[in-house]
Automatic annotation (TrEMBL):
Domain Spore germination protein N-terminal, first and last residues per copy: 18-185
Origin: domain of life: Bacteria
Protein name according to UniProt: Ger(X)C family spore germination protein
Keyword GTP-binding: no
GO terms under biological process: spore germination
Its membrane topology: Lipid-anchor
Pfam families listed in its UniProt record: Spore_GerAC, Spore_GerAC_N
Length: 370
């Protein structure tokens, strides 16, 4: 009996047979790709966390180092990093930066193929596009913070501004490439030496198309597809600016119909918010008429921005990047089976009606100035 118990305990203790000391590994937290060329090959940069006790870094107390390598394929380039550092571990990688020039010529599914196949790479890592070289962004000087972590954590500010898209994870990007065809990817760049999320690139059939969406257009896109989580709407009344803060999305209704072969999409959004700032000297937030006036201006402001974006998507991009195809597919499966592969064309020809209703639930601690 004792022998059986001893064997059982031995088997239970064998679970960590392949464990490695974290100080013996190079922990990759971010990867950037700046070039894919059939002749010159691939150029990447990997950001590696250094132990706090380490003295090597890009500047005193940097806490990380960047290694730039190349190869005939992305896989080879990543393996070549091992020529310059300890054994690589990608299990803690948080971000993947892709220079826009790369996916103007090379399909996105080709770029992420190695990461998808690698069972050590987390499918939850975030993908971003860059206008500047990815190596430049990962080398930006910060106050003892790791650039990859800064970029990753910027996405947590979605409740503060609608100019930030829901983070695009590696696994989601792979799935969208198989089913959706077109979708946006957040751009990260530099402004006055600081890392900043700024607009988005539009992916269609795996490649970057058209001009980048501005921050305001990204905000309008969040309103269009009902993914808004917060943010502020700036508008003017009585020739004075005011700011309306969105607290939460109360409801979203998206209905589609087919009439005489044409697609109609009706979108109705309802949100709650508060008057966060008002420069009008004679404001009276206790007055219901004043409140309704503010709500009406906010609604018209949002609807104009969204309708401007719809026009841009239908006439300039000619692609259904807003993700509205889900509703057509679910509500009209027969139509989708027939025209699903022509979605961009059908979206561009669709009649889209957008309405938003604002419920102001709070106006802060200030009411009447009279």
């Amino acid at each position: 009996m004792k022998k059986i118990l001893l064997i059982f305990i031995t088997l239970m203790l064998s679970g960590c047979w392949d464990s490695q000391n974290i100080e013996d590994l190079s922990l990759v937290v971010g990867t950037g790709i700046d070039k894919i060329d059939p002749v010159e090959g691939v150029q990447i940069v990997q950001q590696i966390i250094l132990p706090k006790s380490g003295s090597i870094g890009q500047g005193q107390g940097a806490g990380y180092k960047n290694i730039t390598t190349g190869g005939g394929t992305l896989h080879e380039a990543i393996r070549n990093v091992s020529l310059e550092t300890k054994p690589i571990s990608s299990e803690h990688q948080r971000i993947f930066l892709i220079n826009q020039e790369v996916i103007k010529e090379t399909p996105l599914d080709t770029v992420i193929n190695q990461f998808i196949r690698d069972d050590k790479t987390r499918r939850s890592l975030y993908i971003f596009l860059t206008e500047e070289p990815a190596s430049e962004l990962l080398s930006v000087k910060t106050d003892k913070e790791i650039p990859s972590n800064i970029i990753y954590e910027l996405t947590e500010n979605r409740k503060k501004t609608n100019k930030i898209l829901p983070p695009l994870k590696l696994g989601e990007a792979s799935a969208r490439l198989q089913s959706e065809g077109s979708f946006p990817i957040q751009i990260v760049g530099l402004e006055k030496g600081n890392l900043k999320l700024m607009g988005a690139g539009v992916i269609n059939n795996g490649k970057l198309v058209g001009e980048n969406l501005t921050g305001d257009e990204v905000s309008a896109l969040s309103w269009l597809n009902g993914s808004v989580e917060g943010g502020t709407v700036e508008a003017v009344h009585h020739d004075k600016p005011f700011g309306f803060e969105v607290i939460k999305l109360r409801s979203k209704k998206i209905k589609t119909k087919i009439k005489n072969g044409r697609l109609f999409i009706d979108i109705f959004i309802r949100v709650e918010g508060r008057l966060a700032e008002d420069w009008y000297e004679k404001e009276n937030s206790f007055d219901k008429g004043y409140q309704k006036g503010i709500e009406g201006i906010v609604e018209k402001t949002i609807e104009k921005e969204v309708n401007d974006l719809i026009y841009t998507l239908q006439n300039d991009y000619k692609t259904g990047v807003a993700g509205l195809f889900h509703y057509v597919k679910n509500q009209h499966p027969a139509y989708w089976r027939k025209y699903g592969k022509q979605w961009d064309e059908k979206f561009s020809e669709a009649e889209i009606t957008y309405k938003v209703r604002i419920n102001k639930t709070d106006f802060g601690t200030k009411g009447s100035s009279q």
